[in-house]
Amino acid sequence: MASSLRVCAAGFGLMLGATVAQAAPTIVVFDAPGAKGETSANTVNDAGDITGYYATKKGLHGFIRSAEGDYTTFDVARKSDTLAYAINGGGAVAGWYTPHATNVPHGFVRQANGKVEKFDAPGAGGRFGTQCFLISDDGSAAGTFGDIGGVLHGFVRAPDGAITVVDAPGAGTGVNQGTYIANIAANGDTTGYYIDENFVDHGFLRKNNGKLVTFDVPGAESTSAQAINIKGVAAGYYTDANEVTHGFVRLAKDKFATFDAPNSGTLAGEGTVGYGINRQGEISGFTVDQGFSYHGFVRSRSGRLKAVDAEGAGTGGNQGTVVQAIAPDTGEVVGFVIDGQGAMHGFFRTP
Prior knowledge:
Oligomer: single chain
Radius of gyration: 20 Å
Shape: globular
């Protein structure tokens, strides 16, 4: 949702010294219809459409919430959990579904007209299955799958259904090692991290032509890239020698800026997690404070940091506000709030 400008009188008002006021950010907390204790808002597009999932006694279900507040709920298959994770500018949704009988995930793309395309990455096997988190504006979907040996591999699925497997150089080949794609830009570039044979994480960027580069934040014990924009700027988090987490942005050719958001704890398992980035270079994410509660944040391109705490967020351990995504252009952010009773609610924040 774009910021709005309010100008007094007409054009001549500006010449008379009238001020231009920018609307204050607004946070709206919501629950999907029928939700029982869990609603997660996972992604938002520039139109203000939000996708995510919610829980009922029968399991998990996908939803789309329009900018006007109308809901579309859906299940990809009967007797399955549906987890909707990403929505593109055209309204197509990507995610995965898990049949209750097998508990193995399978990917899906739901087109804006409601048509659902189910798929499995080639070579997928074992309990990890095919987990699709992402979809670009051209309809390319991406995510991660596990093979029969428990090794992880990234994948990109073209709009015509063709799937390319992505393995970063240096990725380990043991159980729970391998390549994890975390984000896809509007132009099809991807980013993520790979887990090496020593279970250390390293970042990577992959262009839509297949060229892949790996990187580490200088001085980091591990590097996890989580987001990329159309300009090739990546963001994420890294851990230091004390296992404290810090945010980073990779500008170009291994030029990095690192940061700690307000409310960041300084003990092992605490700190700042960069999780999203838009075309303007604004970064969204969350922090873990010294009480192990969560606080959202937005970081401007210039480095200015603003905390995001939704009304009703709990203040105890594993409670608070988690920002999961930022819209590509408008700067609207979405995520979830965990209240004092442990219930999860979706939210969005206008810029």
